[in-house]
Amino acid sequence: MAAIDGGTGTGPGATVSRGGRARLAGKLMLGWVALLWALEVADVLAGNSLDRFGVMPRDPGELVDVVPSAFVHFGFAHVAANTVPLLVLGFLAALGGIRRFLAVCALIVVADGVGVWLISPAGVNTAGVSGVIFGLFGFLLVSGFVERRPLGVLVAVLITAVWGGSVLAGLSPNQTGVSWQGHLIGLLAGVAAAFLLARRRPVDG
Questions:
Q1: What is the pLDDT of residue 8?
Q2: What whole-number distance in Å separates Cα of residue 184 and Cα of residue 131?
Q3: Per-residue model confidence (pLDDT) at position 16
Q4: What is the mean pLDDT of each run of 10 residues along the chain (205 residues)?
Q5: Structural domains of the chain, with CATH
Q6: How far apart, in whole angstroms, are the C-alpha atoms of residue 28 and residue 54?
Q7: Pick from 90, 65, 82, 84: which is nearest to 2 by CA?
Q8: Torsions phi, psi for 139 (to 5 deg)
Q9: CA-CA distance, 169 to 164, in Å (whole number)?
Q10: If you compute the radius of gyration of the chain from its CA atoms, what whole number of angstroms results?
């Protein structure tokens, strides 16, 4: 998220189900990323007119931009920086179920946008999907432990090895042109989603 100054089974059926879920998750994430790139192309062609859908803090009229702000970016480099982590983390999260994935993303988008509106510095326009990326990281980091799934724990270890350093850097208040507030709120929203939307194991007996 950038900121700019400006005003389970093992049978054949289960295997097919997992394969179908992976294909659906892949199509969903490719479609999401394609949408972000298409919007940025439209933004450039329109003279960056979509940048106004970013969130400006503590202006009541800006609350309508809480959701749109997660889909607009400040240039192609901004979209490019978010593409791979969104694809990978989104795909991994969506493998756990599309409905739950959509609920997780909705919670993160709303919580992140409102949080940015509340605590970002005055006069800063904030937009981008990186708050969602940090949220998905937080969700994947915690959900395997909450649900006691060994594969989920392994995913947490792997994404920490790959992106842990970048996440820590993205939370630093010393960066310019980056909304560390949006990153932090997104991360916390993802962790909260892991608890609120945890899959419950059936109880025997």
A1: 43
A2: 8
A3: 42
A4: 63 59 97 98 98 97 98 98 98 96 98 98 97 98 97 98 97 93 98 94 50
A5: 2-196 (1.20.1540.10)
A6: 24
A7: 82
A8: -65, -50
A9: 9
A10: 18
Tell me which amino acid residue 131 is.
G
Q: How far apart are CA 135 and CA 89, in angstroms?
A: 10
Q: Is the dihedral of CA 37, 38, 44, 49 positive or negative?
A: negative
Ramachandran sector of residue 167 (left: φ over 0; alpha: ψ -120 to 50; beta: rest): alpha
**Do you know the residue count of the chain?**
205
CA 82 – CA 74 distance, rounded (Å) = 12
DSSP per position, the chain: -EEEE-----SHHHHHHHHHHHHHHHHHHHHHHHHHHHHHHHHHHTTSGGGGGSBPTT-GGGGGGTTGGGT--SSHHHHHHHHHHHHHHHHHHHTT-HHHHHHHHHHHHHHHHHHHHHHSPTTEEEE-SHHHHHHHHHHHHHHHHHTT-HHHHHHHHHHHHHHHHHHHHHT-TT-SSB-HHHHHHHHHHHHHHHHHTPPPPPPP-
